[in-house]
Amino acid sequence: MKSKFALKTIVLVLAGAGLVFGGYWVGTQRSMDNAATFGAATKKVDPKTGRKVLYWHDPMVPGNKFDKPGKSPFMDMQLVPVYADEGSEDGGVKISPTLQQNLGIRFATVRREEVRDAFEMVGTTQFDESASEVAQSRVTGYIDKLYARSPQQRIKRGEAIASIFVPDWIAPQEEYLALKRGGNTELALAARQRMRAMSIPDGLINQADRTGQSQKHFTLTSPVAGVITELSVRDGAMVSPGMTIAKVAGLSKVWLVAEVPEALSNAVRSGMAVEATFSGDANRKYSGKVREILPGISTATRTLQARLELDNRDGSLTPGMLMRVRLDTEKPVSRLLVPSEAVIASGKQSIVLVVGENNSMHPVVVTTGRDSGNDTEILSGLSEGQKVIASGQFLIDSEASLKSVLPKFSGNKQTMQSAASLVHRGVGTVEKVTPKALTLSHKPIPELEWGAMTMDFNKSRPELFSEIKAGQEVEFSFKENDDGYLLESVKPVGGKQ
User: Fold this and answer.
1) Is the distance from CB of 157 to CB of 178 less than 8 angstroms?
2) 3-state DSSP call for residue 280?
3) Between the CA atoms of 233, 236, 237 and 241, what dihedral angle is there, to the nearest 10 degrees?
4) pLDDT value at position 490?
5) What percent of the chain has pLDDT over 90?
């Protein structure tokens, strides 16, 4: 009987304790839930600032929300209001315009464009051999005067190259002039035909008619405008029929020989339009076309050569210039594009920070397609017209940083609260004390993979840590928040003041 009575007594005690604890727990949860719900639904106005208040909280315990101001139940301090224009109600992160400017954050819009698949090549310019001309001697003579002095000299069309003294032309001209003065028209005509057969130019014959004197010198001129690539004679040299005096390469068009990867050989065809850019000046662009694909593939580079033809009527291109060539496919394709710098590649996935309502920012996993250098194709994850962050990703400098930072952007309140609850500790020397922060030169903090550095740690209230002075060695603890790092405690090393 006694054992049964004792057992009943224990059960009743445990049940009573359970009821008491359960009532307390339910009451606590209800109060917290009601506070959060009331705070979220009611936007009060701060009489001091005139700003709408979402809720009040203790900065030292950020996970709890209160519907009215008062003293914190956790710390000996007043609750701090959270204003509607400070945070984001949609779970994202909101950055003030001032901070956006300081971080150099730029925005871009997801757009859809008709683009052509393209790839780039590198090549060097060459003379257009099909536009080269030769200046040859048709008679036996001597170089009386050489006007072209050296190869690579620019020359105009019709400009003199050399003056040739032709002794064999003197006698036929004297005979023709004598018959003409004698009035023998038929014989004079026959003599004129003989001079033409001897390759005496009509210009010299007409000049002999006008002056009545034989012409002993013949001026050889350039057939095209361009550059003298070969000069085979010097002053006083003897020339013979068919001998090349000079070779002139035209510059109205130039060739560009570009290296094409073997894998893209089927994508390049004769007649395709190209755009070439001078590597030394991105503003110098030239249009042209693929002239032909040269046979043979380099075994060392696994490339073949494509000969391109570029328009050079302004004469700004010369052989040997390094050019970047963009070749577009024939059919355009509609693609969704964002600036390439907007895509954060973590190795396993690609992420874009999307701007929502009230300038809140959310990470979105995307599937990327072709990268043209300036723009990246988005296959899935985004829609046309969305606003994304196009710069500022330099703040996320590694995959490890990405994993630690993105949960703050995700809108997961549980994750955010757990991250905010982490307390880190360090040892350092106080460099400067201000109402807002302490400047500490701290030793390495292994848990954050920090080396020794000097940085600012914020204070939640100006009056905190008033006993701390510059020059003291202190032990400190801190948490991470949206504004940086917030000090939890600071005390001198060894308790010394």
Assistant:
1) no
2) coil
3) 100
4) 92
5) 10
Tell me whether domains 99-115+333-412 and 422-495 share a fold. Answer: no
DSSP per residue, 61-92: EEEEEESS--B-SSSSSB-EEEETTTS-TTSS
388 has which bridge partners? 108, 354
Query: What's the pLDDT tens digit per position in 235-273?
Result: 888 888 888 888 998 888 899 998 888 877 777 888 888
Residue 25 pLDDT > 60: no
117-163: per-residue pLDDT in tens?
Answer: 677 888 899 888 887 888 888 888 888 888 888 888 888 888 899 88
Looking at residue 496, its pLDDT comes to: 52
Q: Is the dihedral of CA 221, 225, 231, 234 positive or negative?
A: positive
* Percent of the chain that is helix, strand, coil (3-state, to 5): 25, 40, 30
Specify the CATH number for 253-331; select among 1.20.1250.20, 2.40.30.170, 3.40.50.1820, 3.40.50.300.
2.40.30.170
Cα separation, 128 vs 252, whole angstroms = 9
Closest of 449, 336, 456, 343 to residue 389, by C-alpha: 343
**How far apart, in whole angstroms, are the C-alpha atoms of residue 109 and residue 388?**
6
CB–CB of 476/428 below 8 Å? Answer: yes
Tell me the backbone φ, ψ of residue 404, rounded to 5 degrees: -85, -25
Domain ranges of the chain: 2-86, 99-115+333-412, 136-243, 253-331, 422-495
Give me the architecture of the 99-115+333-412 domain, per CATH. Beta Barrel (2.40)
Q: Is residue 226 pLDDT above 80, yes or no?
A: yes
At the topology level, CATH places domain 136-243 in OB fold (Dihydrolipoamide Acetyltransferase, E2P) (2.40.50)
pLDDT over 90 at 430, yes or no: yes
Q: Are 389 and 361 in contact (CB under 8 A)?
A: yes
- pLDDT in the model for residue 14: 38
In terms of CATH architecture, what is 422-495? Beta Barrel (2.40)
Residue 206 exposed, middle or buried by CB count within 10 Å (0-12, 13-18, 19+): exposed
Q: Per-residue pLDDT tens for 387-409? A: 988 876 554 444 434 444 554 44
Q: Which letter does DSSP use for residue 229 in this model?
A: E
Report d(CA 360, CA 493) in Å as an integer. Answer: 42
Amino acid identity, position 46: D
pTM of the model: 0.43
Distance CA 247, CA 249 (A): 7
